[in-house]
Design brief:
With about 260 residues, the chain is α+β, with helices and mostly antiparallel strands. Helices cover about 40% and strands about 20% of the residues. The relative contact order is 0.17.
Amino acid sequence: MSAVSTHIVRVARNKSFTSDTLPAEELARLEAAFRSGRWWRDRWADREFRTEARRVMRECGGIVLIGPGVSFDIPAAFDEFFEAIEVATPAMYKDYRLKMISGEAPTKEERIGRVMMAIAAFVVVALIVGLIIGYFFGIPFMAYRAIGISMVVMFGVVLLVTQLIRLRARVYLVPGGLAVVRRPARKGMPPRITVFSRDDSCLVFRLVSTGKTVVMMMELWTPAGGKVARAVSQREAMSAVAVWKSAQAPLDDDRLVEVVNTW
């Protein structure tokens, strides 16, 4: 058994595997399993490859697989206690807690986001000024009504998407791992909570095409052979890795119900 608690394994576009800590023979076996997948199928979904990845996890310590094109800094382990943080939620007010876990340095996404927010603010101000000027110069009332209806429809779509997201199983960063929270089987019952950690699951980050765009997907390959997937930001990915590397023991069931019971 390796003394390293978590091995970071990067997969290049040419299907070569590299790691600073995983033994060379284990890395070679993992790469061979990946290359042996059918060329017309998604090799990441190949059952034999996932079985080999779980074997490496059990025998060599935790494993984080990072696919081609995925780029984020690998943070240090975060061993302090923190309240559960939902992953892939539209709520932006939780960002400060993610920074506490993964560090203050801005990610590439955050730098781009700041520029886009500045551009959006400029456009909104220009639109408001234009409407005010237009009002005094006789823009028809119908135009104002159309703009108002469009804004209401956009707001409604955002609310609908938010609710659809909340109907899925929800994923939380928790001390010692990731908690998957599923809706209770019956109303009034507590949610079903399962905690996955580096001791029983593999953590994977890869780029996935949605048909219109490409997103970074975080996947949990669970002990029973299942998969839980979420599109995540660089900040969420870094925070998940920091928690995955942590020496914290997962919370007991009663404490988990207390910190994630938000249904």
